[in-house]
Specification:
This protein is an alpha/beta fold and 368 residues long. It contains 14 helices and 13 strands. The chain folds into two domains: 2-166 and 350-366, Rossmann fold (3-Layer(aba) Sandwich); 176-346, Glycogen Phosphorylase B (Rossmann fold, 3-Layer(aba) Sandwich). The longest helix has 17 residues, at 118-134.
């Protein structure tokens, strides 16, 4: 069986979907058996294409999200004679392989179209119904997205397989000395609240800032560290920091190296993720794997990720979020209990399990 996996997005947007695709490809290479060959399809402008000893590489000309991508990519990769092509970014091509598998990470663009750029809305909204109908099999990151596909697009759940993501093995509990060394580089002391993710509207950072202001007004001087990178409409977040007079209480750290991010997780009293919508949400899983308590939104996939290990809050209720933060910050016993439950919960998610389920889907569609 000849399998191709689409990694082209990494050349343009090396974020969550690209990380998923590349990490999955590494795990797949370890799960394939004799007679199963993997082709890594990257874009020619990618300065750091993934290369694996057990896989062949193909550098494509067709860019992701191009208006002619549906036809151009299929024509370009047809000579590879793939039995299965895995499109990791929602939309498969019209042809190019005998069978097509696609991953739908979320339907945020249908739930909250105002939270996307105009170009992103147009790309996904115009093609998602066609894409899921064209695919021979659909993978999703959570049961929440499986339900959304059925409710919003009428997709038969039998066509959809849930393949949870996993945190990278580098996210782990560190010795206290290593944590302190990392925090010194950022002039931080342990015990801050932490947010990790793209700075964009659906992440609900303004609501988190309002909660921080409520904590301050109640006499709590906790700091908030916001880690990630600017996204869509991020200027509103900076403006809200100034309006709420939180400049001295908020620290922005843009795109730190993974090793520093591990240290930042370890030094936090809690990770806060009050998103309005997440298709999966890797930061809570990364945090739990580092032994850090999590406070997350009670919507979409996040309850699946944290299970009983985290505190769930209504993202529309800053007061409830502030009370959850106060509980974790003030109760050492609660933090320790959440730490142990989080480590147990995180152990349920592995890339090996994800790759095993993914390969089974490839084998099933290839036999048709």
């Amino acid at each position: 069986m000849q399998i191709g996996i689409d990694l082209r997005l990494h050349a343009y947007a090396p974020g969550g979907i690209s990380r998923y695709a590349r990490r999955l490809a590494r795990a797949l290479a370890e799960e394939l058996v004799a007679g199963e060959d993997l082709t890594l399809i990257s874009h020619r402008r990618d300065s750091d294409p993934l290369r694996l000893p057990a896989a062949r590489s193909y550098r494509a000309w067709t860019p992701p999200h191009h208006r002619l991508e549906r036809w151009a990519l299929g024509a370009e990769i047809w000579p590879l004679r793939l039995d299965v092509l895995h499109s990791t970014d929602f939309i498969p091509p019209a042809w190019g392989a005998r069978r097509l598998v696609t991953t739908v990470h979320d339907l945020n663009f249908l739930h909250y179209p105002e939270y996307l750029t105009k170009d992103a809305r147009r790309y996904y909204n115009e093609q998602i119904a066609w894409g899921v109908s064209r695919a021979d099999a659909i993978l999703v990151d959570s049961y929440a997205t499986q339900r959304d596909l059925q409710r919003l697009l009428g997709v038969d759940p039998e066509r959809v397989t849930v393949t949870y993501l996993a945190a990278d093995e580098r996210f782990r509990v560190l010795p206290k000395s290593e944590v302190l060394t990392c925090l010194e580089r950022f002039s931080l002391t342990p015990g801050y609240l932490l947010f990790v993710g793209v700075w964009e509207p659906r992440k609900n950072l303004p609501g988190l800032l309002e909660s921080l202001a409520l904590l301050r007004d109640a006499g709590d001087a906790s700091r908030l560290v916001i880690v990630g990178r600017p996204g869509w409409l991020y200027d509103e977040i900076y403006a809200r920091v100034r309006t709420l007079d939180l400049v001295s209480s908020v620290r922005f750290i843009e795109a730190p190296p993974v090793d520093d991010l591990v240290g930042l997780y370890n030094g936090a009293a809690a990770l806060i993720m009050p998103s309005f919508y997440e298709g999966f949400g890797l930061p809570p899983l990364e945090a739990m794997q580092c032994g850090t308590p999590t406070i997350v939104s009670n919507r979409a996939s996040l309850p699946e990720v944290v299970g009983h290990a985290g505190l769930l809050v209504d993202p529309d209720d800053p007061q409830a979020l502030a009370e959850a933060c106060r509980a974790v910050l003030s109760d050492a016993e609660l933090r320790q209990r959440m730490r142990q439950l989080g480590l147990q919960q995180a152990s349920n998610f592995t890339w090996q399990a994800t790759a095993e389920k993914t390969v089974q889907v490839y084998r099933t569609v290839a036999r048709r």
